[in-house]
Amino acid sequence: MKTSTERMIAKKDGPIGWMQFNNPARHNAVSLDMWQAVPEIMAEFEKDDQIRVVVVSGAGGKAFISGADISEFAEKRSSRENILEYNRISARAKPRSSTFPSQPLQ
User: Fold this and answer.
1) What pLDDT, in 10s, does the model give residues 52-91?
2) Burial annotation 3-27 (CB, 10 A radius, 16+ → b, else e)
3) Residue 47 CB neighbours (<10 A)
4) How far is C-alpha 100 from the geometric centre of its chain's CA atoms?
5) What is the rounded CA–CA span in Å between residue 90 and residue 67?
6) Rounded to whole angstroms, how far apart are CA atoms 67 and 105?
7) Residues β-bridged to residue 57
8) Which structural domains are found in the chain, ordered by start?
9) What pTM was computed for the model?
């Protein structure tokens, strides 16, 4: 399964969707492109009637997610408009990751 960034790995294995945060050099700190990929990946899983569960993990074996990638803040959050856009993008990812599946299992 192709994602919009190499920092997110998504694959399907029968009824299991796998979503992995892939930024081990930064303990999987979530960059803006990673925030953008989460709802894309979850939407793809939701479209597949065979996917019954999504397993979320962090690459590298040291950390699941260490938080936001603050190294991007100087550029990506440099103005009020940029902050609002960053917040909008990251907010789109959070509800998707906590409400899958959108339909109750039967």
Assistant:
1) 999 999 999 999 999 999 999 999 999 999 999 999 999 8
2) bebebbbbeeeeeebbbbbbbeebb
3) 8
4) 13
5) 12
6) 30
7) 20
8) 8-97 (3.90.226.10)
9) 0.83
